[in-house]
Amino acid sequence: MNTKSLISITDFTKEEYLKIMRLAEDFEANPNQKLLQGKVIATLFFEPSTRTRLSFETAINRLGGKIIGFSDSSSSSVSKGETLHDTIKMVSNYADMIIMRHPLEGSARYASEVSSVPVINAGDGANQHPSQTLLDMYSIIKTQGRLDNINLFLVGDLKYGRTVHSLLMAMLQFENPIFNFIAPPELAMPNEYKIYLTSQGIRYFEHTEFTDIINAADIIYMTRVQKERFIDPVEYEKVKNVYILRNEMLKNTKENMRILHPLPRINEIHTDVDNNPKAYYFTQAKNGVYTRMAIIAHLLNLK
Ligand code: CP
Fold this sequence. Notes:
The protein is α/β, with parallel strands linked by helices.
């Protein structure tokens, strides 16, 4: 189909990342721009969401568009056995764009091949979450003033956490990234990403603890252990509280270091961190509205 979709973060070039950053800044300064008047956007969420769905829907409302869709597929004909193929065919007859979250890896790419309108992947299983990455990058550039030379600590579930996979691939486009992967062996960064980094000559370091090394970080990116991806609940119980970031651990960290988390958090950031000026995760989620306005405007050629 001759439409531009955002399925993997690598579907966008570095120039497009930078354009999204500029547009997001513009939308943050002026959030009510009625560029979507007369357009209908479908939000199809086959998995639960708070931030992604509501920030996309806020973005659409601020742009003056209309929203159709579902937040629970049991209220759609999927519950009667309708296939993803037929659902997407139908919805692309109704809407100018589809934003979809689905538990199956590859489902968003498949939807984009079936759809006659652009598709945004709002998360497909443990694979990718590219709009999250763009808001993460916007949060990094806002707080660090750059995307080059970032020492990034990725902490927690690096196996199933789709946000870290997308973020890693995006940051590779910038100068001199340093990746520190902090995970227990069961949740380590998948080999395919590490092999790719090595092939590109990019430095990465793996650790199972981070208390003693945290002071080198520009960004600490905490992640939730993805309970819903575990086949065996006993295995989840073993690792669910593997890392808990506490306020006392932050006292010698860089002044300008910021803590990001795609949220929701469970226990991995203690609430005593929330009032530390280095805690940025709630503002990060707010940045999602402006970034998603920018992504929609870019894909529909509205800006
Ligand atoms: N960050 C994120 O994807 O949050 P939700 O699951 O609430 O959408």
